[in-house]
Amino acid sequence: MEIRKELPEIFKSFSEARQAGFISAKNFKDAGNPLIGIFCTYFPQELALAMGAVTVGLCASSDETITESEKDLPRNLCPLIKSSYGFGKTDKCPYFYFSDLVVGETTCDGKKKMYEYMAEFKPVHVMKLPHSQDQVAKELWKQEIIKMKEVLEEQFAVSITEEKLHKAILLKNEERKAMKEFYGLCRQDPSPMTGMELFNVLVGASFDFDREALPSKIRDLTQKVQEEYQIIQNNEIKPRILITGCPMGAATAKVIKAIEDNGAVVVCFENCTGVKAVEELVDEHNLDLFGALAEKYLNIGCSCMSPNTKRFELLNRLIDEYKVDGVVEMTLTACHTYNVESLSVKRFVQQEKGRPYTYLETDFGTSDVERINTRMTAFIEML
Ligand code: BJ8
Question: CA 46, CA 48: separation in Å to the nearest integer?
Fold first, then answer.
């Protein structure tokens, strides 16, 4: 059944944001604004917003520079780390090139050791992320956030006042609320958009540098998608898939494609590309601004945490809210923390939630596209 003709147009500006972002990044820099490159959702973006800077994600998702990076890094390392390092080293990523400072965190071992080499050709600051989420860890993380603020103030000769920081907290929360409303549309059955469309907006929004205008742009899109949905009245029921695991980018969109080519629809991304870092807001009423930031960010359920209870709390809720029929876990090769944790996710999904689960380990190449497709055919047939 032909479902709709108009909808893809609505998504276009977000889908093209990453490409268009190269020019916006240059214009943003030419206007004298700092750009901060980040590799992880644990970085409190409010600090950058409070000093008039914006952040740009530098996690690469292409195998183009892996050969070059393997001259310095081991071959059996996660492709995200190798690719990101390679783009930085070869100056092939304009976002990396334009970044005045790169911020990393001590998340997984590969990333934190890679930053030591990256610091040879770019200013890098590494935040020491604790690997648990108790009160002691939150206090440590709060101190790291304060230290980060001082580094930014010194490096960029700015003052990040409490007033500016509070304004930034409100602004970033607005963006999160708007994004939650947008992806929350997929709670409806049938879903009003494909997983690929959802994915393109999630990725594209992070490359829009007009952060003041972003919440209303996202809300406009949400309204348009919902209006179209009501007019079109698509009744095509499809198996509903939640993707969890490592962050995704252009190269790993092959997993979404394989799922949707086989007749299912991705309705939720639990990973860092999707809802993981967006769901929880910063407490706007907490007068201890750094404490509020530490609380929000340290609650992100990444597999570098042990135990990683927040991930399971979130999965539990999302599987119900999005009426998920099956869970696909996508991990990257040599990502030890996510690969080890996949057994707990499998047990949780199958035993606690009573849903089918499957696991795919992949990299940024295309040699496994057929294998992934075959796996998804079998999984979706079973649903
Ligand atoms: S909060 S998921 S963005 S660390 S895939 S580089 S973990 S070996 S990306 Fe991540 Fe922050 Fe966690 Fe999110 Fe290491 Fe694994 Fe590679 Fe990874």
Answer: 5
Look at residue 6 and tell me whether its pLDDT is greater than 60: no
How far apart CA 127 and CA 24 sit, in angstroms, is 28
Which tokens hold the place of 103? 């911020």
In the reported structure, the alpha carbon of residue 239 is separated from the centroid of ligand 1 by a whole-number distance in angstroms of 28
Tokens for 169, please give them.
């907290």
Q: Which of 88-102, 112-126, 147-161, 297-311 has the lowest mean pLDDT?
A: 88-102
Going from the C-alpha of 303 to that of each of 188, 264, 326, 331, 370, the distances in angstroms are 29, 27, 21, 11, 28
- How far is ligand 1, taken at its centre, from the CA of residue 107, in Å? 7
Domains and CATH numbers, the chain: 9-162 (3.40.50.11890)
Element (H, E) at 176: helix 162-184
Q: Give the pLDDT band of residue 336 (cuts 50, 70, 90).
A: very high
Distance (Å) from CA 336 to ligand 1 centroid: 10
Ligand 1 atom with the shortest distance to the CA of 39:
3
Nearest CA to ligand 1 atom 7: 108
The token pair at 219 is 């809300």
Q: What is the pTM of this model?
A: 0.95
Q: What's the pLDDT score for residue 2? A: 42
The letter for the amino acid at 7 is L
Residue 108 CB less than 6 A away from ligand 1: yes
CA of 331 to the centre of ligand 1 (A): 10
- Pick the atom of ligand 1 nearest to 276's CA: 13
Pairing verdict, β 240-245 and 326-332: parallel
Contact 61, 37 (CB under 8 A): no
- Cα of 247 vs centre of ligand 1, distance in Å, is 7
Tell me what pLDDT residue 222 has.
97
